[in-house]
Design goal:
Number of helices: 0
Shape: globular
Radius of gyration: 13 Å
Strand content: over 45%
Number of strands: 11
Structural class: mainly beta
Length: about 120
């Protein structure tokens, strides 16, 4: 059974940093795309970063490029999202997701497996 568990969310002031973690279990972790998505109130879910653990290849949305970094610890089957220079508009629920294949790496509908989400709130 695929299980994805996010942690690390919280409240931070603008300009600050947070690191999210996503622990995966129940499937072949390294051979699945792992993505981070977020959804702000009243907005559609947005793909912001993805990684293919077997190769370490990464993809980023323009909205977070240069500020967020996706990384992995294959020994722990865990993917991280380091978020720096946080802005008010980064406030959202953040989800990790997994997909055995994904032609569009940041498209939510490519990912069948999802975690429960973790809240990130950025304040001024």
């Amino acid at each position: 059974q695929v299980q994805l568990v996010e942690s690390g969310g919280g409240s931070v002031q603008a300009g600050g940093s947070l690191r999210l973690s996503c622990a995966a279990s129940g499937y072949s972790y390294s051979r699945n795309f792992m993505g981070w998505f977020r959804q702000a109130p009243g907005k559609e879910r947005e793909g912001i970063a993805a990684i293919y653990p077997l190769l370490g290849t990464t993809w980023y949305a323009d909205s977070v490029k240069g500020r967020f970094t996706i990384s992995q610890d294959n020994a722990k089957s865990t993917v991280y999202l380091q978020m720096n220079s946080l802005k008010l508009e980064d406030t959202a629920i953040y989800y990790c997701a997994a997909a055995p294949s994904a032609s569009r790496k940041l498209a939510p509908d490519e990912y069948p497996y999802w975690g429960q989400g973790t809240q990130v709130t950025v304040s001024s």
